[in-house]
Amino acid sequence: MKLALVSTLVLATSAALCASAYQTLLSNKDLLACYDFTSLYSDPTSAVTDPEKYESQFLDQFCTNPSCSADVFNKAFTPVVSACGADTYGGAIADIIVRFYGPIKGASCLKNSTGGYCIIESTEKLTPYENANSVNDIPASVLCTTCNKAFVGISQAIVQQNAAYLTALGFDKSAYDAQIALISSKCGADFTTPTSLSNDNTSNYRRT
Ligand SMILES: *[C@@H]1O[C@H](CO)[C@@H](O)[C@H](O)[C@H]1NC(C)=O
Ligand SMILES: *[C@@H]1O[C@H](CO)[C@@H](O)[C@H](O)[C@H]1NC(C)=O
Which terms are listed as keywords in the entry (predicted)? Predict the structure, then answer.
């Protein structure tokens, strides 16, 4: 559910997988102009003491900086896909960043009615239920929110338009569809309608 690029980048850069290809990202000037993610390591205490503020600051920079364009990510991550192989874990993450940059950025930058990031709101609300086996175990008041509706709509569009690709990566479409059916019955059929994804993957793709 959580599509935060920060965790993807941390995961990607800290894992040993395809390490040397990922190393090149740390010196990619265009990527650093978008977000200097090497600074993630410079002040690790703030990430621990106030993770919400830290993540919010990261998103502010990522979502509003015009340098964070699809083209920059495409040029940076396409060689990583080649180096790792698209069928490896590290390669698949890079491939997903290249293919789904627009929707990933769109989902990461969504804001709620009080101006907070949806990704933070949903994470906070869903954390007590992180061990739930089914969406049936999550109360409607937590599940059927405006933010989650937006995430589900983006997810539905990605899955419907890329089913073969995702299945090849090991994605379990029937398990996904079963959860979507449960979400529909809990939150209403309208809740799981696919969003039309913006083709403009160079814009900030910011919605409120
Ligand atoms: C997004 O941008 C990349 C180049 O940066 C391009 O190859 C791709 O076709 C674009 N996707 C869409 C949906 O326009
Ligand atoms: C909006 O999101 C922030 C976190 O980003 C959260 O603290 C706040 O409670 C949310 N507002 C609503 C109305 O849920």
Answer: Signal
